[in-house]
Amino acid sequence: MEYDYVRKIFYFSDLTDLGLQHGFTGKEFLPVSGQKPEALLGNLLERDVFVLNQVHSDLYVLAEGGAKPQKQDGDGFIIGQKAAKGAYTVKTADCAPVIIKAKDVSCILHCGWRGIAAGFVQKALSSISKISSLDGVIICVGPCAEECCYEVGKEVIAQIGPCAAVSKRGGRESLSLSQTILNMVSDFLPYRSYTFYRSGICTICDERFFSYRREGKQTGRNLAFIAY
User: Fold this and answer.
1) Are 31 and 51 in contact (CB under 8 A)?
2) Which of 96, 131, 190, 227 allows an S-S link to 87, with CB 3.0 to 4.6 Å?
């Protein structure tokens, strides 16, 4: 993962090389307390910013046909080639921001353990496969909670199932969200060619990012976006 020191945005260079404008923000993007990150992002990109009422679900909004998406319950966007111009955005504070780039479609998801357990990534890939080829699909996981810090209970691991990427540290079990997502993608796409990237950044211990686990309810939110 690369960092744009001017715009204060993290990004995956391979996605940028493919022409997909995207990014992930942290605390440095929001230097003044009280500023709304969506407003800053809209000003920077000179675009409307589309967000959802995130509810830790497996619900997504299909953006196509040029109409601006309305704010509603959901945790991701699947974005067609004729989608309205704007920045399709999710907010995170330890949950995983996931960007998927297929031939004719892109997608951005907010994935906490509940969404992962519900098969949100697989559901999105299945929906994308109905409107675009998945051959050569690229899946990128931005900064999120990782096994170095993310202790979870046995009930969480049980709900996620065999794809849960668990490490034991000092008698306690920790979960890697990015590796869990990779395990699920590998199961879902066993015979297809795909590329998987992850940031290598844990939001809990990297203080450049907002973290619910580290800072509590008062913490801010990191943004992840795809801009058209």
Assistant:
1) no
2) 227
Give me 113's structure tokens: 């353990």
What average pLDDT does the chain have?
94
Q: At what angle do helices 120-129 and 177-188 cross, to 10 degrees?
A: 40
Summarize pLDDT for 86-102 with one digit per residue, the tens: 999 999 999 999 999 99
Residues 6+ apart with CB under 8 A from 17: none
pLDDT at 190: 81
**CATH number listed for the domain at residues 2-145+178-227:** 3.60.140.10
10: Cα separation from own chain's centroid: 13
How many CB atoms within 10 Å of residue 21? 14
CA distances (Å), origin 123, targets 65, 120, 199, 218: 22, 5, 23, 32
pTM: 0.96
CA distances from 8 to 5, 23, 41, 222 (A): 5, 9, 11, 12
Length of the chain counted residue by residue:
228
